[in-house]
Design goal:
Blueprint: E1 13-17, H1 20-38, E2 43-44, H2 46-49, H3 56-65, E3 67-74, H4 96-106, E4 111-115, E5 140-141, H5 147-162, H6 165-198, H7 213-231, H8 235-248, H9 253-269, H10 279-293, H11 299-319, H12 326-336, H13 341-354, H14 358-370, H15 375-389, H16 392-407, H17 414-427, H18 433-440, H19 445-455, H20 464-480, H21 484-497, H22 504-519
Parallel strand pairs: 1-2, 1-3, 3-4, 4-5
Length: 520
């Protein structure tokens, strides 16, 4: 369980309000993301924060007094859910969600509607008068296909509210980084044009056409500097350093290749904050490098550049330019290099972004992996495509992806573990029996148990609730393997441990025990 806040955390917490039947999975996933960014003590989510046996209303009220910002997670059923007597929950003054939001609005703190699952902002006539001001607040939407990126942009906005002055200044730098990057590179290119127009080139070849030793040494130094900047994700600085090297040695293949590598990495990993910049503006300097290199590029390198041109088109498509079709660039890249890892993986991502053709996407991803290069980028695309598609079939692919990484000796990042965890968290609900069965059948039982232990070793290390959820699934997998006594023993132990608790996991454990008992 999450610890209660110490004095330093008070008045700087993030309160996540949601309806369980409407958006529990999205709220939990958002909470995990925000906790990684700000720390668990800064985030209030009832299922994680309230200890068993605690007065729910008292803890909610106390936590609201310590809240700096409230995130109201709104799914398609947020306003329409009804109580057992048929009345709409939102019309009940004692409804917990209504009480949470009313209290936050009354304290005049930032209250942010967070739309999930394609939900729209509630209409004023659909909410009680006490919640009317909620519908006029600035809204954040978490797109299921780009959940991680959208949540990260939300965290950047939250940082301005709850972090220290120094951290806030850094957040402002990050906010304006795309515009500063464009300006810096534009000035650098302008300076380069002026220098090359009005003075003699710095490099004069020797009689045999080779580069002078002094210049070669300088180029090596600049390449090393750019490499270090690139490793620190200082793409602006790296391209500026490489522009100096290119000026001194226009024909250097090493300089050109590193420029292209930095530019492609920039395009793949660009981040922008909603409302402050567009993807198109943020990638403009990097895309200029790619465009300049394409005419002379051949073979696999040309396919790499074409694939990243396609990814740039995808980003600008997300900006709103629906005239663009990234698949055109990906297809051209594959016509040059059919096994190109970037083109195959990016096309697979686009297919799942646009359609339900999971088999084709799986085949393309498999081809990308077989190329044995660009592995980190491919994995990133696989997790994004499978993790955000939200169907039982793609959940299966996510589990199989984790199993493949385990067998290959790869390491799972916390973001990937979080994405995988969401599938198990949701499938434990009593209403999701089909999803749970499909998930359990994704791998042979013993392989599945090994993958669970490997995937969540760090993610669940300090969270008893998560460890119990894993034990619940391990018991179900033992049952699938025919080890019924071991399965029942594990479930009974869990049931005893949670005797004083209530909630989804306890219900799931008891339902599993009943099912195994009747089956025996």
């Amino acid at each position: 369980m999450t610890r209660m806040p110490d004095q330093r955390d008070q008045h700087r917490r993030i309160f996540i309000s949601y309806r369980r039947e409407d958006a529990a999975g999205d709220a939990g996933r958002l909470a995990d993301h925000v906790q990684r960014r700000f720390g668990a003590a800064r985030v209030f989510l009832d299922i994680d924060t309230i200890e068993p046996g605690t007065d729910f209303v008292r803890v909610l009220r106390e936590s609201l007094q310590e809240t700096a910002v409230m995130l109201v997670v709104i799914g398609p059923r947020w306003t329409s859910l009804r109580a057992a007597d048929g009345s709409r929950r939102l019309d009940d003054p004692a409804d917990f969600v209504r009480m949470e939001v009313e209290a936050a609005l009354g304290r005049d703190i930032p209250v942010v509607p967070v739309l999930v699952q394609g939900a729209s902002v509630p209409r004023k006539e659909d909410v009680p008068p006490s919640l009317a001001s909620l519908v006029t607040r600035q809204v954040v939407a978490l797109d299921h296909a780009e959940f991680h990126d959208d949540a990260e942009r939300l965290c950047e906005r939250l940082a301005k509210v709850i972090e220290t002055d120094d951290a806030t200044r850094w957040a402002l730098v990050r906010r304006w980084w795309p515009a500063l990057a464009v300006a810096a590179i534009a000035l650098g290119l302008a300076g380069y044009a002026i220098r090359t127009q009005y003075r003699t080139p710095a490099t004069v070849p020797t009689a045999n056409g080779e580069m002078p030793a002094s210049v070669e040494g300088t180029i090596d130094t600049l390449l090393a500097e750019a490499s270090a900047q690139h490793r620190r994700s200082q793409s602006v600085e790296a391209l500026a350093t490489l522009a100096r090297a290119r000026e001194m040695a226009p024909a250097s293949d090493a300089v050109r290749q590193m420029q292209e590598d930095v530019a492609m990495d920039w395009i793949r990993n660009v981040r922008v904050e909603s409302g402050t910049s567009s993807f198109g503006a943020a990638i403009k300097p990097a895309l200029a490098v790619v465009d300049a290199s394409l005419p002379s590029a051949t073979g696999a390198r040309r396919a790499d550049l074409l694939a990243h041109s396609g990814w740039a088109a995808f980003l600008m498509w997300r900006d709103g330019d629906r005239r663009l079709n990234p698949a055109e660039w990906y297809s051209e890249a594959l016509s040059v290099d059919p096994g190109n890892p970037y083109a195959n993986a990016m096309l697979a991502h686009w297919i799942l972004f646009q359609s339900e053709d999971i088999p084709r996407a799986v085949t393309l991803f498999d081809t990308a992996v077989q190329a044995q290069r660009g592995s980190e980028a491919i994995r990133m695309l696989q997790w994004a495509a499978y993790g955000n598609h939200r169907t039982p079939e793609t959940h299966v692919q996510l589990v199989r992806l984790a199993d493949s990484m385990r067998r290959g000796g790869e390491k799972l990042s916390m973001a990937q573990a979080q994405s995988l965890w969401g599938q198990y968290y949701l499938a434990a609900q009593s209403s999701r029996e089909h999803e749970r069965k499909v998930l359990l059948d994704a791998l042979p039982p013993d392989d599945h148990i090994s993958t669970l232990d490997w995937a969540f070793a760090d993610y669940a290390a300090n969270d008893e609730s998560r460890r119990r959820t894993i034990r619940y699934y391990v018991a179900l997998l033992h049952a699938r393997a025919g080890r019924l006594d071991q399965a029942v023993a594990g479930l009974r132990t869990l049931d005893v441990e949670m005797a004083k608790e209530s909630g989804t996991l306890r219900d799931a454990v008891q339902a599993a025990l009943r099912g195994l008992s009747s089956g025996r």
